[in-house]
Amino acid sequence: MVDGVCVTVTLLLCVLGGQALDLLRVTATSGDPPSTPTVHCWCASYPNVTFCSWPEASRSPPTHYVASYSERHRQLVTKPCQLIQPGSASSDLISASSPSPERLWHCHLPNLKLLTDYIINVTAVYSGGSRSYLSSFMLEDIVKPNPPVDVRVSAHDTRKLFVEWSHPPTWTNLDVFPLKYQILYRWENRGTPKSVNLGPFESTRVELKGLTAGRTYLFQVCAKELLGLGECSGWSSPVKYTIPRTKS
Q1: pLDDT (tens digit, 9 = 90+) per residue, 86-116?
Q2: Is residue 113 classed exposed, middle or buried when 0-12, 13-18 and 19+ CB atoms within 10 A define those classes?
Q3: Which residues pair with residue 23 across a beta bridge?
C-alpha cells in the first residue's frame, strides 16, 4: 500500500517440465502486509492419503482460509480442500507423526490421480485484503510415509543385536506398495559422536553384528516406498540400548 492506495504484487516461479510452480499473490488495502501461508504437502500413504499444512500466523491471524486444488492442465476445474483446524482431534492425529511447536492448519486432498500434476491454492483472508500461495506437485514426488513404530532392540549375545519394528500404521496399502527401511544407530566414543546408517532393508527385522560390549547406542528407523518414490519418513523415536558385557 502506498499512501492508502491498494497494492497488488504477483511473483511467479516456473520450472520447465512441470516439476514446480510457485505463485504468490497479495492484495492489501490497509494495515500491515498480511502473512503468506507457507504450504507443505506430503502423501503419507500412497496413493490415497495426501495432506497439505501451513502454520497459522501468530501475529494478526487471518479471519479464515480458503483452500482448493486442481489438475494443472485443468485449472478451471477446482475442488475444495477439506480444512482441518489446529487443535482438533484430526489435526492432532496428523501432527503426531511430526510434532511442531506451531499451530498448523491442514487440508486433506482425497482421490488424487497417479502421475498427474496438481496445483494447491491456499488463501489467507484478512479484514483488509488477502494473500494467496500456489504450489504445484505430482503425487509421486511428495510421498513421505510416517515413521515406523514400536522399535525394539534385543541382544542375541554380547556382540550381536536384533532390531525390529512395525510399519507405520497409516501406510494402508502395504501389500500393493511395500516399504523399505533404513537403520540409524549412534553412540559416543570418548565424547565424539559417531553414527552408522544401514540399509535399505525390506524386512522389519535386522541383525547387527560387531557392536561394542558395554557401549550405549541409540537406534532409529525410517521408511520409504520400495521403488524409491518421494523421500524417507522422519526417523522413529530413538531407542536406547546398552550392549551387555561378557560375564567374567
Answers
A1: 777 776 567 656 666 677 889 999 889 999 9
A2: exposed
A3: 12, 134
